[in-house]
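Usage example:
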Amino acid sequence: MEKILLIIPAYNEAENIPWVIEELQQLDNVYDYVIINDGSKDNTKAICEEKGYNYVDMPINVGLADVFRTGMKYAVRHGYSMALQYDGDGQHDPHYIACMVEKMKQTNADVVIGSRFVEEKGCKSLRNVGSYIIQALIKLTTGKRISDPTSGMRLYNANVMKFLANEINMAPEPDTIALLIRQGFRVEEVEVKMRERQAGVSYLNFGNSIRYMMNICMSLVFIQWFRRKR
Amino acid sequence: MSVLLRVILVLVALGTFRYIIRKIRKSQAQIVDMGFWIIFSIILIIIALFPQIAFFMADVLQIATTVNFVFLAVIFLLLVQLFLLSIKVSKLESRVKELAGEVALKNYEDAEE
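Running the assembly step on the lines above writes:
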């Protein structure tokens, strides 16, 4: 039986964390999880403490990339064989976790992405336009079609976990997916449904979205070519 | 170039050198990192004392005015320094974040016991 860990980054998610965790605990198959509190300014930490959730508390705010990396280290050190990147804002539906695990076992993939658009085309909102551009760039640089590169629901196996835990510049973002493909890791996708964020504020406002797109595109088009192979 | 201007240049260069040395002493910065600034201020003094060097270089490179050569050289030196600094800050940032992660995991393990 494989051991699966859900890595849940949380920055100011006091309103969402309780029901996200409760929803997880109501599943038939109870997964291990770790909340990583990224120096939240609200009472996220107090809630985790009070309800006895399993959480790691970052002493300072370090941003998603390093929160995720810390989660990966946790997973590697506690001997998990799979790790799932899972949002703390309730966008991800835990009922799809089993599908993703199934897909990983079936196809022997190193990474399984929970995609919103494997079958249906996404509606043309601003975020999806960005997603198309990133998709095209990944296709261009790796030759592989990833239908939903910006999806934040990704399952990694032990090989990739070690890689992500030890290397720098391994943010849980589309450019890392492209890098993994070029390094010879196998990436598959599974159809999932996602919900709207239930409470609190998204990190991606308009200005941040533009900056995010710029960074990812720069990274995909220019930087990735100069990175050392494994 | 007038004598007055040269005197001012030499005085400013010497003042800068003194200021940098004093700051380095006080701030207890790593000597390796300050090497650049010491050499930089010595170069300023040398050029102020012997502007012939700048005249000569500008002439060789066919730069119309001497001062343009001085600007070019100083801007280039500063750009290199800025680039090195940028790498250093970036490294520092990733190390701090890495340490933060390790501290968090350590605290978690300690709490578990």
